[in-house]
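On clarity, I found the account of how folds are encoded harder to follow than it need be. For illustration, here is how one protein appears when written out as sequence plus structure tokens:

:::
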Amino acid sequence: MKKLVAILLVFFSALGVYAQVDAIKSSSSNNSSGGERSSGRGAAGAADFFVYLLVDNIIPWQQQVLQKRTEIPELVSLELRLQTGLQPSTYYLALPRIRANWGAFSTDYRRSYLIESNPLGPTKDISWNDWQLLQLNLVNTAAARFRIGGGIMSEAFEARQTFTEYTIALGLTSKNKIYNGEFEFRQAADLATGSTPRWELNAHLNKKLFDRKRIHGYLTGGGVFQQYYGKTNVWAFTAGLTFKLY
């Protein structure tokens, strides 16, 4: 087991762990100077995507999903995830996140921080605002949930560019409801330049810690891999707490 962990650390380290903060800022600056700014186009692209998907049968579909609420109370819920990530000896991630679920629909906001230690000077950091304006919960069962979504990823540094971002996610729950997990893919797109400001894969497993009336607490652990502008890789092991209100 120790040998496997060592091999994985060497492998991921070889993906390009170097000056992530400066590299991402540089790529963002080059992208903004290479084409017109895409702040307005990001929101417009997400809106067009969902207008296409939601033109018909919204109300009957929502009513059908909400009929399952007795069996699956999380269909109408509020989730708060306090999650941090660590890449050994190099940098840290903080990924606080909140999601509101209402039957067939959800909205999800995440504030993403990348904090890089610098032995030769002050600590460096950058951040993003990731808001999935609307997500469609296409599969809703006690054992599995599948959703797609669209929204914006906004860089809170340099040119403060905003891009369209899409997500796909699969959630699984054990029969005894003690364990649940999620696999998620995210991709941001610059519609003006055709670049990919970020794509991401993340996964986590939750174990229930307590139930206090309508509040349910979980211990969470997992991992995340991100690539910025096709050349800067960020990865980390993640851990934290998740609270659900329903």
In short: The chain has four helices and eleven strands. Helices lie at 2-13, 20-33, 39-53, 58-66. Residues 1-18 have pLDDT under 50 and may be disordered. The chain has one domain: 2-245.
